[in-house]
């Protein structure tokens, strides 16, 4: 086998491995997060990327209004994509 062809074969193997180890898992994670963002609705308890915990008061397109403290009427408007997880009751 010539050195040029061997180098090309190694390159193809490396690219295939990168595709398998990087792209596919990221695609699955992205799909899971998209499903989470689509399922968020008023009344859900969520945690943001920054660690803020709140209850969704309303969803307006790509924005959410979170109730942080009901007693003191503290709310926060965030971008939907900042939601990292839902807290199941």
From TrEMBL:
It holds the Pfam family YajC. The chain crosses the membrane at residues 6-24. It is a single-pass membrane protein. One of its GO terms (cellular component) is plasma membrane. GO terms for biological process: protein transport. Keywords: Cell membrane, Membrane, Protein transport, Translocation, Transmembrane, Transmembrane helix, Transport. InterPro entries: Preprotein_translocase_YajC (IPR003849). The keyword Transmembrane applies. It is found in: Cell membrane. Coiled coil: none annotated. It comes from the Bacteria. The keyword Metal-binding does not apply. Belongs to the YajC family. This is Preprotein translocase subunit YajC. It comes from Enterocloster clostridioformis. The lineage of its organism: Bacteria, Bacillati, Bacillota, Clostridia, Lachnospirales.
């Amino acid at each position: 086998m010539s050195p040029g062809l061997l180098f090309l074969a190694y390159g193809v193997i490396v690219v295939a491995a990168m595709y398998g180890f990087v792209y596919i898992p990221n695609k699955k994670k992205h799909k899971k997060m998209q499903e989470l963002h689509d399922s968020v609705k008023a009344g859900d308890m969520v945690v943001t990327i920054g660690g803020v915990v709140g209850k969704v008061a309303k969803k307006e397109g790509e924005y959410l209004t979170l109730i942080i403290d009901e007693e003191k009427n503290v709310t926060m408007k965030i971008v939907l994509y900042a939601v990292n997880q839902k807290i199941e009751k």
